[in-house]
Design brief:
By secondary structure, the chain is of the alpha/beta class. It contains six helices and six strands. A six-stranded parallel β-sheet has the order 2-1-3-4-5-6, with helices on both faces. The radius of gyration is 15 Å and the shape is globular.
Length: about 200
């Protein structure tokens, strides 16, 4: 059976259609080793966390144990909020967060329903691979948001790139493809130690 990869869209009206290109790219690049699932989350389109969460719980169950998750922009912050507050029963093998806004309560963007607790990282389940990607020329989410996450979440690997914009589709996102393939080829999170 192929590895299951869940792709979570960004937020705002039309975000699902805009992120379709990245989801399709990953699906094509990984077609030999993984099935990429790209459900539509109306709660992200309408920027309603509680509506998003009700759909996301089911999507996570459908993806199954040992899932690999890729989340773009506000979808990443929403996912972190859910994982840190709800403690899902399923193991998550890897989490890749792309162009994610800093949504902690102590930040400028932390004043809505998607806001994360300042100590969110202490309440996340064990995840073997944690990587945040951000482009220096992101036109929507300031680049310094990556550094703010790095300070709060030292267990996560942060990757700074250039020329990718917010959509990460200006050039092929080979770094993410290779990272996912490495997770699939490596040992499962059930046999590997959790990060400290």
């Amino acid at each position: 059976m192929k590895q299951q990869v869940l792709f979570v869209q960004g937020g705002g009206e039309g975000a699902y259609a805009e992120d379709q290109a990245l989801a399709d790219y990953l699906g094509d690049a990984l077609r030999e080793v993984a099935d990429v699932h790209y459900p539509k989350f109306p709660g992200l389109e309408s920027v309603d966390y509680h509506l998003w969460r009700s759909k996301a719980v089911d999507a996570l169950k459908d993806t199954g144990d040992e899932a690999i998750i890729v989340a773009h922009s506000l979808g990443g912050a929403a996912l972190l909020k859910m994982l840190s507050e709800d403690k899902p029963a399923h193991n998550i093998r890897a989490l890749f967060l792309v162009a994610m806004p800093y949504k902690c309560a102590d930040g400028e963007w932390g004043g809505d329903d998607f806001a994360l607790a300042n100590d969110f990282a202490q309440h996340l389940p064990a995840i073997q691979h944690l990587t945040l990607y951000h482009s220096q020329d992101d036109e929507w989410v300031p680049f310094n948001h990556l550094h703010q996450y790095a300070q709060k979440w030292p267990e996560a690997t942060t990757v700074s790139l250039a020329g990718r914009g917010h959509s990460f589709m200006k050039v092929e996102f080979t770094e993410l493809v290779e990272a996912i393939q490495s997770c699939i080829d490596g040992p499962s999170s059930q046999t590997a130690p959790a990060p400290h």
